[in-house]
Amino acid sequence: MPELPNSHAAGNGFCGCVACGSQMSRRRFLCTGAAGAVAAPAIAASVGSAALAQQAPTGAAPGRPILIKGGCVLSLDHAVGDFEQADVLVEGARISAVRPNISAPDAEVIDGSNTIVMPGFVDTHRHMWQGILRNVLPDGSLEDYRNLVQRTFGSKYTPDDVYAGDLFSALGAIDTGVTCVLDWSHIHNTPDHTDAAIKGLRESGVRAVFAYGNAQNETGRFWEATASKYPDDIGRLRKQYFSSDDQLTTLFMAAPFAAPEHVLRAFKAARDVEARITIHVGVGEFGRNALLEKLNAEKALRSDTTYIHCCTLNDTEWKLIKDTGGTISIASYVETLMGHGNPPIQKAIDTGIRPSLSVDVETSVPNDFFHQMRTVFSLQKNEVWAKRLAGDKNPPKFLTVREVLEFATIEGARANGLERKIGTLTPGKEADIILLRTDRLNVMPMNNAVGAVVTSMGPANVDTVLIAGKVMKRAGQLVGVDFARLTRLGNEARERLFSNAKVPPSRV
Fold first, then answer.
1. Residue 62 vs residue 134, higher pLDDT
2. Cα 306 to chain centroid, rounded
3. What residues pair up with 178 in beta bridges, in sequence order?
4. In the chain, N or C terminus with fewer CB closer than 10 Å?
C-alpha cells in the first residue's frame, strides 16, 4: 500500500493537515473526545427526514448545513489525515471541510464527542432479496443453500417478497453502519420482481448498487425461466430507473455463475448500456473450471468487472484479473462456513490486488461489517503464522488493522465504481458518514481508534449514519422508520413465502 506522508505516520504526534497544521497529542489515536459528553443532542426534524421517503437526487440540499463537532476523525484519505479531535462540515449532500475548529453558525450541530467519525462501510456483494430469510440456514453448506434458498424459496418468491427482502436488508445495512451496498440481485423471475427490488432499495434510503441478475427456479437452470427477461431487460432498467448517475441507486449487471455462453451474453448486455459487471468465480470444486481463461479467449475481461470469492481460481486467472484491472470481493465468513474454499486474502495481496469485503447471504451469516473485518484480519494472520511455524524463512507481512479498514471502505467504493463519490472523508465527496460510540464497555477506555473499530466494535456502537448528507440513524435509532409497519410487512412476507414453498415454519 502507499506510504502515508511523514506528517500522518502513526506515532509522530502531528496531524499534518494543511488546514490544521497543529501539533497533536503523542497518543494520537486515543480519540476519546471531550470528557463527560455522553449524550448527543437530537438534530432538527428538517435534517432527519423519514428514511422511507422516495429518494431525491443526491445533489439536492436537504436543509441547513450539518456540523459534526469534536469527534475523533478517521478520514482514510492520506492527504486529509486523521485527527484526535476535529469537525466535519456537510453542506447539502457533500463534505465541505474536515479540520479542527470549524465555524458554521447556521449549521445543525451533531455532537461527535466520544465517537469515531469515519466513512460508512461499503459492501460489494449481498443477496438482499433474502432479507426475510435471515438465519434460515445457519448450519448449511453451499449445496444446502442452493437447494433450500435458491431452488425452494427463490422459485416461489413473489414481487412483494422481493420488495420486503430488499427493504429489510437495506435498513439492516444502514443500522450497522453500511452506507453503500451492492445488491447482487438474482431473483428476477419476472420484470415485476425486478421493479419490486428497486422499489425496496429506493425506499430504504441506502446508497445501493443494483446488480441485475438471473431468475430462480426449481431446477437451477435459470435460462429456462420463461417469464424472466434476463439479461436483456437491463436496457429497460437503464432508461426507466438509471438514466442519471446523480442518484443513490446505480446499475450493475450480475453475470451468472454458469457456462461461458451465458456469461458472455450477460457481459454484452451490460456493456451495451455501459453498466459495470459483477460475477461469482472460483467457488468450490466447480470454480476450478478455468472460466476466466475461457472468457479471456473471447476478449471479455476488462477493468469494469468485480470478481467475487475467487477461492479456487488458478494462477493464470489471478494474473488475468490483475492485468485487466479487475477488482475482487471477499466474503470470508461465508466462504469458510459453506465450503467455497480458503478465502484468498493472501493470494490477492500477493497478486497486487487490494480486496473489498462483502456479507453475501444473511441466511447464514451476520449482516454487519465488524464480523467481516475481523474474519479477514484473523484468517490472514493465521495463514502467516502457519507459514512461520512450518519454517518459511520469508513469510508474507501481517495485515494491519488500517489496511483492513480500507478494505471495508475505500476499496469497496472502488469495486462499486464509486471511489470518486465515497469511501473517504474528503472535501467534495458525498457525505456517507458514520459515528461509532467509544463510550461503551466493549471499547472503553479507548486507546487506538482504528484498532477499536476493527477488533472490538459491533453494531451497538453505531450511533449515527448519514448517507449523501441525510441523517438515516441518530442516537442509535433509525430515523423515520415505522417499525410497526415493518414488523407486519416482514411477518406477512415470511408466512406467505414459507406457505408457497411448502416449507414448515419453525423458529427453533
1. 134
2. 13
3. 121
4. C
